[in-house]
Every structure is written in structure tokens, then in C-alpha cells.
Amino acid sequence: MFTGRxxxxxxxxxxxxxxxxxxxxxxxxxxxxxxxxxxxxxxxNENWSINVIxxxxxxxxxxGNLFEKTIxxxxxxxxTRPYHDTRISGEWLHKRRKWFFLSKRQYLAIxxxxxxxxxEISMEKLTKRKNLTWTIRNQTIFxxxxxxxxxxxxxxxxxxxxxxxxxxxxxxxxxxxxxxxELLHNPVISSKLDGMARFVDLxxxxxxxxxxxxxxxxxxxxxxxxxxxxxxxxAVADSIKINxxxxxxxxxxxxxxxxxxxxxxxxxxxxxxxxxNKELKSKINLAGKTLRLLLTENNFGLMVRTIPERKKKxxxxxxxxxxxxxxxxxxxxxxxxxx
Length: 339
Description:
By secondary structure, the protein is α+β, with helices and mostly antiparallel strands. The chain folds into two domains: 9-126, no CATH class; 133-333, no CATH class. The protein has ten helices and eleven strands. The protein has helices at 9-26, 104-126, 172-185, 187-203, 219-227, 232-243, 247-255, 262-273, 277-291, 324-333; strands at residues 27-33, 39-44, 50-60, 66-77, 86-88, 91-93, 133-144, 149-160, 163-168, 303-306, 316-322. The strands form three sheets. The chain has a seven-stranded mixed beta sheet with strand order 2-1-3-4-9-11-10. α4 (187-203) packs across α7. The longest helix has 23 residues, at 104-126.
């Protein structure tokens, strides 16, 4: 599939060929595939300068023009972002154009190779680290029914260290894989979201006859409730700020069907994130649609955690990959700092 805007086919071919040449010569790992996703060649550049896993294969634009080689996919490793420009040793390598994508058939044919290579790179990096866990400070919100107010407690917990990767927000099939790996196979995340759903439902139950029966509050009313110490709305707003979730997390929370006042919850989310209700629902529904593209029944020995966004308009999703079996092996051998 093609999403470019060029009407001059010769100029477009020139741009595509330039991007392919750059990635072929400078990317860390390059897969060459055919229309069906079968790997024709796998090339690892010894002197790579763009730290990405790239997939190159045939593509077609929306006017039926065929391209023998196009960049179908990039996976950034570490701080490197897919398709972004790179500066190394004073040299500037231009960004690539996200014009073509893997089809579902191609992705399913090559997915195991991508995941196994991702695991291999993670193992290589993690085995060099002395500690595979790190202690993070966290905050937990408690809602007291008797006192009719919420309180925040500071605490600490151990988490597995991982290796960071990033993918374009437009690569739906791989994103579906990552979302499923996190929500279905990361017990820390699934437990956290389940607990938040129950907390939100409890906080918004209100008094007899339904204190929060309406959901279409004005911005001023919402702001007033979000600042009131005795308000369940404030407790939920504080929880949203502390947890700093992504759209697919909210979709998962809602899909648990534990929040009776779902519309009010979404309005609070929109208030905290400073986003309109319509736009928020669109983002959450899009994340849910992406999530349902694939069902990852096996975690392939990976534990995935997506990283909250710092920039609203960031065009990539950043995530960490940890290897639980490596932690367990070190724990058995009494090596390093392990849970």
C-alpha cells in the first residue's frame, strides 16, 4: 500500500530508490522479501550507522505503478527512531519516507523472524548488564468511602529492565503484536489496569440516587469536581495523571466492563489529557481496532511494556522488551540483582 502524494512517477521512483539504497547500505539488519513475505535474503551490515531492522520488498502505489524495492517496515533499536534522520560522527543521514507497508500476509510470514531477532538483540544487550531489575518509585491512590476522599501513598517496586525499540504508529500489524504482548502476557500491566478499572468504578459510584448520574458536565463543573478533595472525580483524575496510560490501555480498561459510568470516566480522561471527547473516543477505538488485528497466543519469551508519550504528536510508539527467562536463570545461579 502507498500513501505518498507525488504525481510525478519518475521523481517518486527516484525518492524511493534513494531511501532503499540508504537503508540497504547503512541499516543494521535488512530483510529482503517477496510479495508473499518469503525472505529472499537477510543482510547484516557490519559497519551499520542506522540502528534499525528494515524490511525491503516490492510495492505498488495507488495508481497501480509497481516498485521492485520499497521500504515496507522499520523497527528502531535503542534511541534510534524508524524513518527519522540520523546523525553519526558528524554525518547526517536523511529520513526515509513512510509510503509503503507490509500486507497482513507478508507480516504473518515474517513475524517470527522479526520477533526472534528482537529477542536476540535484547538478549545480547541484557546479558552485558550487571542488574536485570531496577527499583522505581510509584504512587498509589486509595479511595476511602468512610472519609469520602482519596489519598496518595508513595512506594517502591522492582521492575525488569528491558531494551527499547520503537515502531511507526502506521505499522498496524506490528503494533497489534506489541499491544497484545503487553496486555495479554505482561502480568504487571494487566493487574495494574484491572485494579484501575475497579478503582474508577468504586470512585464514581457516588451516593444514593447516583451522585454522578450525568456525564456531560461543562468544563467548569469538571474542573471544580477535579479539585474537590471529597470528589470521586478528583480521585479518578489523579489516577489518570499518575498512571500516564496510552490509548490501547484505556480501550482495555473499558473492555473489562467493570466501569458502570463509562461515559463519565471518558470525560474525566479527556479533561486530564486536554482532548475533546470525540477525538478521545476516536483514538481509543482506533487503538482497539489495531489491537484486534492479531491475537498473540504466545509471548515468545518476551515481556513488553509500552512507554508513555512525552510529545503529543510523536509519530512512533516506544516500547521495552525484557527477557524473564534470563532473569530466572540468574536468580537460580545467584547472579546479579534479580527479583
